[in-house]
Amino acid sequence: MGRKLLLDKAHIPGIRYYDTYKGNGGYAAAEKALKGMTPDQVLDEVKKSGLRGRGGAGFPTGMKWSFIAKPEGVPRYLVCNADESEPGTFKDRYLMEFIPHALIEGLIISSYTLGANTCYIYIRGEYAWIPEILEEAIADAKKNGWLGKNILGSGFDLEIYVQRGAGAYICGEETALIESLEGKRGNPRIKPPFPAVKGLWQSPTVVNNVETLAAVVPILNIGGEEYAKIGIGKSTGTKLISACGNINKPGVYEIEMNISVEEFIYSEEYCGGIPNGKRLKACIPGGSSVPILPANLLFKTAKGETRMMTYESLADGGFLTGTAMGSGGFIVLDEDQCIVKNTLTFARFYRHESCGQCSPCREGTGWMEKLLKNIDSGRGKMSDIDLLWDIQRKIEGNTICPLGDAAAWPVAAAIRHFRDEFEWHITHPEEAQARNYGLAHYADPREIAVPA
Amino acid sequence: MADEQKLFKVTIDNITVEVAPGTTILNAARLIGGDIVPPAMCYYSKLQGSGGKCRTCLVKVTKGSEADPRPMPKLVASCRTTVMDGMEVANITSPEVVDARKSIVEFLLINHPLDCPVCDQAGECHLQDLSYEHGVSATRYEFKRRTFDKVDLGDHIKLHMTRCILCYRCVFTADQLTDKREHGILGRGDHSEISTYIEQNLDNDFIGNVIDVCPVGALTDKTFRFKNRVWFLKPVDAHRDCENPKCCGKTVLWMRGDEVFRVTARKDQYGEVEAYICDTCRFEKKETSDWVIEGPRKINRHSVISQGHYVGMVKPQETIVKVMDGRAPKLLMDIHRVSEVNRPEIDLSKIEGPAHSDDFKINGVHPQ
C-alpha cells in the first residue's frame, strides 16, 4: 500500500464537516504554523519538501512563493485555482467535495506564509454544487476561529472567498483567471509582468492549484524533509491521479511517486487493469494537453528503462518519445479506441475553449478541427496530415498563453506516434467508418535506441 | 540627476540603437526605421494595453541582455517586450521569425473574406500590406469561411465583422477615448465578435475614431462607403477651429475636385493617428468652406495612395481652343443626355450611402 497523505482520512464518514475533520487531527498543521513558526520557516519547510505545482506545469511551489514581490503598503493575494477543466482531470473536485477543510487549512497556512490577508478560491462554473460545500466549510472554520481577525492570537488576519467562474477552460490559465476574478473578460494577460509582481488588482499574487495548496498541510504535519523522502528524485511526495477510460476501476487515486506506469494500470490497488481482456493501445497520462503515448512507449522509455509515475520519467524522451505528468488526468485507451476520433475530440475542445485573443490559436484550432473532422469522416486527403503537422507547429510557441501549445501537442503526438492510423483512415475511408484500426503494431516491443 | 538616465543598448538585425529603459523592442526598431521594423496589426502606441494579440510582430531575442545573455526560449511579441541593456534581436535576419510571420499572415487570412475589390479599406489596409509583404500567394484552407451579418453601429459606422482580425484596437479606443464603454467582444475563440450590447448605437463625440484605428475594413465610415476608392482621392491637410475642446481640429480631407469625400485624422507612417478628431469634424463638415486647407498630404505607408499624391503636378496645357482659332469644340454627343447617372449637378460625396440609380431621378422619374 502506498502512503496516503491527502486522502488518508477521505473515507471517514462525515470528514466533510468541521467537527469530524478537527477530531481526526485536522487544523493541527495550521495551529503549528500560526502559533510556532514564522512565515519564513513555513516557506523553508515547503522548499525542503520539494513540492511541485500540481496543476500541470510542475513548477517548484517554494520557489514560486519566494518570487512574490513584497512592496510596502500593497496587499498580497493568494488565489486558489479550482478551475479544473482539463478533459480527464477531476482530482480537485474530489478533494473539495469530500475534504474541503483540508483545502481551507492549506489556504490558511499558505496565506500566512505569503502574508496575504485575502484569499480567493476560483472554482469552475460547472462545479455548481461545490461552492456551497466550500462556503459552509469556510463559515465553520470562521466560527471556530480559523479565519477572520487575529487568528489564534497570531495577529494574522485572513478572509477566504469563493468565486464561481462561468465555465471557461481558459480561466484556468492564471492570468485569465485573475482577469475573470476582477470581473473582466477572461483573456490571458501578456507576461511579463508576472502575477507575483502584478496580479490581482495590480497587486502581487500567487495562483496555486487546489491539490498543491492542500499538500501544504501534510508537509507541515510530517515535516518537509520527511515529505521529500517519498517519491523519486525531484518528484517528491504523493500525487492525486484521476484515472479514467478503459480501466476496471476509474477514480481518484493518491500515489506515491515511486510506482511504475504498468503497476498503476494493472495493479488491483489502482486501476485494476483493462476490462474485457482487451489490450492496451495508448495512454494520455496527464490530461488532454499532454502528448499521447502508444503502449510500447508507455511502460518502457525509448532507452528501455521502466517508465515511472514521476514528473521526470513520464517526460523522459521529450516530445519525441515522452509525455508529461500534467495535471494527473490519466486516460487509458484500449485496442478498440480510434486515435483519430480521440484527437478530433480534443481538437474540438480546444477550438471551443480558445479565448480568441491571439491569431494562431483562434484560427489554427478551428482549422485543425475541420481537417480532423474530414479525416475522421472519410473525406481526408493524404496532404491533410502534413498540413495538420504544419498548423500545430505554427501554433506552438507563438501564442500568448499555453492554450495554444496545449492544443498543438495532442495533435502533434497523435500524428507522430499513430501516423499509420491516420493514413489508413485516408486510404480506407469506407472501412474506417465501419471499424477501428485496432491495436496494430502499437504494443510491439520497440527497438531500444542505442546511444550513439 | 534623474534625467541623466542610463540608456540601454539594443541591437536589432545587427543595427545598434540606444533607447531609454522601458522602451519596447518594436519602438526601438521604429527608431531605427526601415525594413527591420516588425509589422504591427494590433499594437497602437496611443492606446494603453494594446498589442501582443496579433503576433505579427514576433521577433527572436538571441541574447537576453548583457547581464543574462541567454536567448529567450520562444519568439516574443516585440510590441510588448521591453528592451534590456545589451539585448540582441533578430527580426528579418532570422528565418524562424520570417517563417512564423508567414504563418501568422496565413492564420489571419484563412477566415478573411478577401473582398478587397469591394472593400473601402482597400489601398490603405494594413492586412493588405501585410499579405503583400509576408504572405503567400495561395491558400491551403479549403473550408467555408466564417461570416457575420453586417451591423450598423449608429448612423455613421458600419461594422463588418467578417473582415475583422480581432485586434481589439477599437475596444481600447472606446474604453479610453470615449466617456462610457459601449462596445467590446462577445463570444470566444473563432466565434468571438466585436459588438455593442444588444446592438446599441455607438453614440458619442469621439466614437468615429474607431474607424481610423481599425487596421482592416471591419469598421467603415458610412458617409464614405462605396463612394470612391481611396487612391482616386487627393488627401490634403486641413484644419478648423473645432468647438469641442478635446478635438484638435487637424484633419486630412480626401477630395476629388472640390468635393470632400471624407475626413480622417492625420496618420503617421505606421498608420497611427497623430491626434484624435471629433465626430462633428469627421462626419458633418464635408464642405471645403468648413476648412482651412493647408496643402497636399504625403502618404508614406500605402503605395497606391502615394501614386496620385498630386505634389508638383503640372496640368498639360489645353490646346484645342488654340488650334481652333478660339472656337470651342463642338460636342457630337452630350453624355448627360444619354446617361441617367451622370447628372453633373449631383455631388457624389453628398449622396446618403452608396450611390443608387434612384439618386439620379428627377421628381421620381429618370430623365430621358
Automatic annotation (TrEMBL), chain A:
Keywords for this protein: 4Fe-4S, Flavoprotein, FMN, Iron, Iron-sulfur, Metal-binding, NAD, Quinone, Translocase
Cofactor(s) listed in the protein's UniProt record: [4Fe-4S] cluster; FMN
Name under which the protein is recorded: NADH-quinone oxidoreductase subunit F
Keyword Iron tagged: yes
Function: NDH-1 shuttles electrons from NADH, via FMN and iron-sulfur (Fe-S) centers, to quinones in the respiratory chain.
Catalysed reactions listed for this entry: a quinone + NADH + 5 H(+)(in) = a quinol + NAD(+) + 4 H(+)(out)
NCBIfam families in alphabetical order: nuoF_fam (TIGR01959), PRK13596.1 (NF010120)
GO molecular function, one term: FMN binding
Species: Chitinophaga costaii
NADH-ubiquinone oxidoreductase 51kDa subunit iron-sulphur binding domain span: 340-385
Family per record: Belongs to the complex I 51 kDa subunit family.
Residues in coiled coil: none
From TrEMBL, chain B:
Superkingdom of the organism of origin: Bacteria
Record's keyword annotation contains Hydrolase: no
UniProt entry tagged with the keyword rRNA-binding: no
Start and end residues of each 2Fe-2S ferredoxin-type domain: 8-95
GO cellular component, one term: membrane
Compartment list: Membrane
Record-linked Gene3D superfamilies: 3.10.20.740, 3.30.70.20
Pfam families the record matches: Fer2_4, Fer4_Nqo3, NADH-G_4Fe-4S_3
GO MF term set: 2 iron, 2 sulfur cluster binding; 4 iron, 4 sulfur cluster binding; metal ion binding; oxidoreductase activity
Domain 4Fe-4S His(Cys)3-ligated-type: 96-135
InterPro entries linked to this entry: 2Fe-2S_ferredoxin-like_sf (IPR036010), 2Fe-2S_ferredoxin-type (IPR001041), NADH_UbQ_OxRdtase_ferredoxin (IPR054351), NADH_UbQ_OxRdtase_Gsu_4Fe4S-bd (IPR019574), Prok_molybdopt-oxidoreductase (IPR050123)
Keywords of the record: 2Fe-2S, 4Fe-4S, Iron, Iron-sulfur, Membrane, Metal-binding, NAD, Translocase
Cofactor requirement: [4Fe-4S] cluster; [2Fe-2S] cluster
Family: Belongs to the complex I 75 kDa subunit family.
Stated name of the protein: NADH dehydrogenase subunit G
Organism: Chitinophaga costaii
